[in-house]
Amino acid sequence: MSDVIHLWSSLVDRFSQHGVAPLLSLLHLDGLAGDPREIAESLMIAALQVCIIGFVFRPLETLAPAEKWTDRKLTRVDYQYTLMMLVGIFPLFSYLVLTPIANYFGGPDTNTDASASPLAITHWLPWLKNYPLTLFLFYYVVYDFVYYWMHRLQHALPWWWALHSMHHSQRQMSCWTNDRGSLIDGFLQSMVLAVVGIVMGVEPDQFAWLMLLGELVQNLSHTNTRLGFGPVLERVLVDPKFHRLHHMLVDPERPTLHNCNFGQVLSIWDVLFGTSLYGLAPRPTGVGDPTVDDDNNHGLIGLHWNAVRRFWGAVRRLDGWKFGEVAFDQNYRPVRVSHEDLKAYAHHQVPTPPQGSEPSEQQPLPPTADLATE
Description:
globular; 14 helices; mainly alpha; single chain; 2 strands
């Protein structure tokens, strides 16, 4: 194990010295972006994540698919977005925006210096510094608890759902879907989690590994597979079967059924707070609301623009601030789902292509068609 750690550290040093540091110097960002070594490690972690998704999780979708597709057209935009986020936008945001903010608050709690956050965990429990693994797990439990409630808010607050619905609009949920999301939504999530990290005194390298752990579990939970962790472990950890139910299309006969399984890594929060759902067969994914489902007719830029229009239509209206499940009308105004015909929402509404032209998207599956069974 020590050899692996030494090899990783050596690779980080080389990439920092011969790649990141010269680039920061060229862009005149030496004193702004933070430690080049931390940036190098973050980029390498992102590359490691992409490799695990592509070479481990993607083959699982071929071996044991939850839903059989004739093609994977709709997954391409998620693949492109994952690469853009992991090796581009997220590292830039972390080190050009969050690092200066962290420094303003005194930086991570790397020692007992008085400048460290007074709310840091190790400020109150200094003995935890002697048990790094326990401290890491403590950090992650707090992160996951915050994420659970933030995720519920993303579904309950209409203007936030206007953004978060872009993540749920995908009809072909795959190992690449986790990073599909509005940039505004991603910014809000990152700010919430970053503030939690700063307050707890999480060190930059710990933050990077915390994010990798959470992201990898989410990449796995979004895979198009029938994989489950068993009757005991699934009550503690999120698996693909569990999270797929969170992404399912609305059931007109049980209209609140899809409001479930909000956990990121630990499903225990859903169990404790009564939002867990187990035991159902794999179901089609997506959002029945035609305004949200229209995301699937657009590429990387178009689906972001759709989310921005929904957000602007909701955030500037009083109804956009009232808790509850909503859809969006043609003017992107939030409309209470209780006022809508849910039977129409149970099937994707795909326009018939003009005669003589090829359909731009795969025809969606009805709720019980062509689903792989246990």
